[in-house]
Amino acid sequence: MTKLIIALDNLSIAEAKEKIAEIEQHHKDNMTNIIFKVNDLTALVWFEWLFSIFQNSKAFLMLDTKYHDIENTMKNYLKQLASSKIASKVAILTVHASVWKKALQELKNLKDKLALKDLKIFAITALTSLDDEDTIELYWKDAKETVLSLANIAYKWWVDGVVCSAQESQMIKQVFWQNFLTLTPWIRFENDEKWDQKRVATIEDAIQNGSDYIVMGRPILNSLDMIWTITKVLNIIHKYYELWAMK
Fold it and tell me: Radius of gyration over alpha carbons of the chain, in Å?
């Protein structure tokens, strides 16, 4: 079933604590379907702080590190994570697919050796802020071709899935296999602003296209009633999952 990831980017420690507590109070029975996302700066500096926030929580974390570095640097980070108190709470880690195959293989092998058996590594393809014009300038390919090319690297070297827009999720499932996971950011309600993003999608479109994880930040955190909005999102997910299960 598709899970909801709530982005906690750009919040203070106090704000994050408040929102997490409020969400857990009202959705304690749904916490296995909710993951909180923190960005790379928070993850690097605040492992101990993250543990103090989540040690009594049933929720898990996505460390949106977006790593794009040499193998040793990324391996050192993974070792630090494995030795930290927060390690058992981390469900997802992100790295750019364009670090290339050797780096992805090294991370996958190291993850298997460390006490991180439940950690999923997702390879980032083309950022959702890029459209065809941008990817042609950067990669000499349109967005779909770029995503497919980078996803192929991730698939060959056995990472768990890719970060892509919901527009490419169905393609990924068709070209590779259903268990190759897709994590799709910048999911919105129908009339929400796009801000600086170009390849966005609604919740319904993301689920229909096979997204295993959807990321939502501002549409939830900036809504007039955060708890009601989360309930609405989870109800949409459950509705589509039940329809899919009946097929």
Answer: 17
Q: Which two tokens stand for residue 125?
A: 């393809």
Q: For residue range 49-95, list pLDDT tens digits in order.
A: 888 889 899 999 999 988 888 888 788 889 889 988 899 999 999 99
66 flagged as catalytic: yes
Tokens standing for residue 242: 């039940």
Angle of CA points 198, 212, 9, to nearest 5°: 55
CA distance 19 to 109: 36
Q: Report how far residue 181's alpha carbon sits from residue 66's, in angstroms, rounded to the nearest whole number.
A: 17
**Number of separate domains in the chain:** 1
**Segments forming the whole domain that contains residue 193:** 3-246
SS3 43: helix
Q: What is the CATH number of the domain that holds 190?
A: 3.20.20.70
SS3 18: helix
The active-site residue out of 19, 37, 58, 66 is: 66
Token match 């007039």: residue? 224
Output the pTM of the full model: 0.85
Q: Cα–Cα distance between 210 and 121 in angstroms, integer?
A: 18
Beta carbons of 92 and 35 less than 8 angstroms apart: yes
